[in-house]
Specification:
It is built from 31 helices and ten strands. It is mainly alpha-helical. The protein is flat, with a radius of gyration of 35 Å.
Length: 664
């Protein structure tokens, strides 16, 4: 048992409390701190949903902290559990108390969500100044770490993040916020409308984290249905998704939905349509809160069960008012009249991401090429540095960390390749080289082979590497080198003489030769012999096919699987040994064609046969015969029945009535 433990500050994360303990204890390494607190050397420094809280609470001094206090007041459990059923909340809470934490994310079901969770700790400059003035130190707040919170709900200004965390943080590292940590802080700038909506979301999140009296037993799905009905989105038991989607997209700005990865995308099976269905517990809390703000106005109203229709669904309530006691009022509250759409990748210069170059991580790229993605219509930026390294990524850049991402490497360039030579010459392992050059080991193997470098680890054969167009060097458009042309000619001649047929490889070689040595390929084409045409006796084929079709129709009940199946040309031909004959050679088989035309069912005939089958089935099981049950059994909609069907149903019902009244 340890002798002291820091008293938690309001809304402080457990991660921050342990970071302060590490400083106060004077431990040299973070593993020593973990051993002191938990009695073990391995424990991940998770700032959102940590585990082993029960062990930690049993080892710290008695300062009035229970496991519930640590979970509800110093982790993100209230945020993630607010929209989960009681059984799941119970499992997750026990996992946080006892387990190693590996199953918590799986139990939350947020791993399958497409919402981007940036693993960056955030802070507010004004909160930091107030902390130092009140406590002599600052700490990490839970509210600032919630996914989608980009604005401080107390000071109404965007939060700060630092790229320093991307490099220095690891799974056993605990860091406290300080001025050095935010020397090169990245602060996002938003338009007034987006800032308004982000602040609304942050205020609701703060209420959810600190409201212990929330009635979590309240059924979210039932409340959604009541709100949808009150706001006019439910008509005849079904949700008008088109109207709902339109109002949702009018209420929130497009920039906000892209920033929060919550645009509808027009998908029928996406989160937007499934959030109102049974079993929607895999929907991320961020999206639940966006929906509740639109339908109910606030989480307080939603969880209280106060169902009222919102009068205006077009403009969100104005929450922003600059605080009088702020030293410097936020510059984001004034709308800019002449504000233009910002560039998708920001203003240049842009960053070189070649780890082999001395300018790595520096903004040295002065020009980029922006094209439009053919499928998503999103902008794609192509960046090329003076070192020859060029890459591309899909935009727009939404957060500061996006500028560190590489979507696709177009060309590594001479500087990168020279660095590869040096590292191989020094005797480094393949994994070490791949880590230093920020690529996969397979890329190192292929380029080492292509560059004819001597290495100790095993790589691909040169022939295989040259065939792979993805990793091979680009050859001059004028026709390739003499060595490559000679090599391809030999391959083609071997393929012509080979008994084995490798059509895919033959196509690859022929395409290359057609591009770079087309004249030679024309002289050395595959010699085609004369085809022996085998005449078909269509009269005999028609007679055989007629017998086969009649056999299928006579035994049609074998293909129905206890339910009528319509007799059509396609359904018959699909059961033949040669289905394409009936479909493509109709003029050559007149006897079979005439029989099929006579036996095929119209839609009216097929539905009448289904009704007869339904009557027979219901009588066999003594089911009461009514019009509604009969149509349901036959699988026919009441709006699509024809007069002949109505007459049949009426005759059946009248016969039943006469039979029942015969013995009265």
């Amino acid at each position: 048992m340890i002798t002291f433990f820091p008293t938690p500050y309001p809304d402080e994360t457990l991660y921050s409390i342990i970071a302060r303990y590490h400083i106060y204890s004077g431990n040299m390494t973070y593993k020593h701190t973990i051993t002191n607190l938990l009695g073990m050397r391995v424990w991940r420094a998770k700032w959102d949903m940590p585990s082993h809280i029960g062990v930690l609470q049993s080892r710290i001094p008695d300062i009035g902290l229970t496991t519930d206090d640590l979970i509800y007041n110093h982790t993100l459990y209230p945020y993630y559990s607010a929209f989960l059923p009681e059984e799941r909340r119970f499992i997750i809470k026990n996992q946080m108390i006892d387990s190693n934490g590996s199953g918590i994310t799986r139990s939350l079901s947020t791993g399958s969500s497409d919402i981007k969770i940036e693993k960056l700790l955030c802070h507010c400059k004004h909160c930091m100044e107030e902390d130092i003035e009140n406590f002599g130190e600052s700490y990490w707040r839970r509210t600032h770490q919630i996914p989608g919170v980009f604005v401080c709900p107390d000071h109404q200004v965007p939060l700060m993040t630092s790229s320093k965390q991307l490099i220095e943080f690891n799974k056993h590292h605990f860091s406290t916020p300080n001025e050095d940590f935010f020397l090169n802080a990245n602060t996002l700038h938003f338009e007034k409308e987006v800032l308004n909506q982000l602040l609304t979301y942050a205020i609701e999140v703060k209420w959810l984290l600190n409201e212990r009296e929330v009635d979590l037993e309240f059924k979210t799905l039932e409340n959604y249905k009541a709100l949808l009905k009150t706001n006019g989105y439910i008509c005849s038991r079904y949700v008008n998704l088109r109207k709902w989607r339109k109002d949702f997209e009018n209420f929130y700005s497009k920039e906000l939905l892209e920033l929060l990865s919550s645009a509808s995308r027009g998908s029928k099976n996406g989160w937007f349509d499934s959030i109102f269905r049974q079993g929607n517990s895999s929907i991320h809390p961020l999206r639940h809160i966006l929906v509740i703000i639109l339908l109910s106005g606030s989480l307080r109203e939603f969880f209280s069960g106060n169902i009222q229709a919102k009068k205006d669904l077009k403009t969100p309530p104005p929450f922003l008012e600059a605080k009088k006691d702020l030293k410097t009022p936020p510059p984001f509250l004034e709308a800019k009249k002449d504000l233009k759409t910002p560039p998708p990748f920001g203003n240049g210069p842009w960053m070189c991401l070649n780890p082999a170059h001395s300018d790595y991580g520096k903004d040295v790229i002065k020009e980029i090429e922006i094209v439009e993605c053919g499928s998503t219509k999103q902008p794609i930026g192509r960046f090329k540095c003076k070192c020859g390294f060029s890459y591309s990524r899909k935009g727009p850049d939404l957060v500061e960390s996006d500028k560190f991402k590489i979507g696709k490497t177009i060309d590594f360039g001479p500087v990168w390749k020279e660095k590869l030579k040096q590292l191989i010459k020094q005797g480094n392992t393949m994994k070490d080289i791949a880590k230093e050059l920020n690529v996969s080991p397979n890329t190192i193997k292929r380029y080492a082979t292509l560059m004819n470098l001597s290495y100790s680890w095993r790589g691909e054969q040169l022939e295989q590497t040259l065939i792979s167009q993805k990793f091979s060097d680009k050859i001059s458009k004028k026709g390739g080198t003499n060595e490559n042309i000679k090599h391809r000619r030999a391959e083609w001649l071997n393929l012509l003489e080979s008994v084995e047929k490798n059509e895919r490889y033959r196509d690859t070689v022929s395409q290359w030769l057609r591009k770079y040595d087309n004249e030679w390929l024309k002289k050395n084409k595959v010699k085609k012999g004369k085809r022996s045409i085998k005449r078909i006796n269509w009269q005999k084929r028609d007679e055989q096919l007629l017998v086969e079709v009649k056999t299928i129709v006579e035994n049609w009940d074998l293909y129905e699987h206890h339910r009528p199946k319509r007799i059509t040309r396609n359904s018959i031909s699909n059961k033949l040994k040669s289905p394409s004959v009936v479909k493509a050679m109709r003029g050559s088989i007149p006897l079979t064609q005439k029989y099929i035309d006579s036996i095929c069912e119209t839609l009216e005939q097929y539905r009448l046969r289904k009704l007869k089958w339904a009557v027979k089935e219901m009588r066999a099981y003594n089911d009461p015969l009514t019009k509604t049950k009969l149509l349901k059994k036959a699988g026919i909609s009441g709006t699509s029945i024809l007069p002949s069907h109505k007459r049949f149903i009426n005759e059946v019902i009248i016969d039943i009535w006469k039979y029942n009244n015969k013995y009265i």
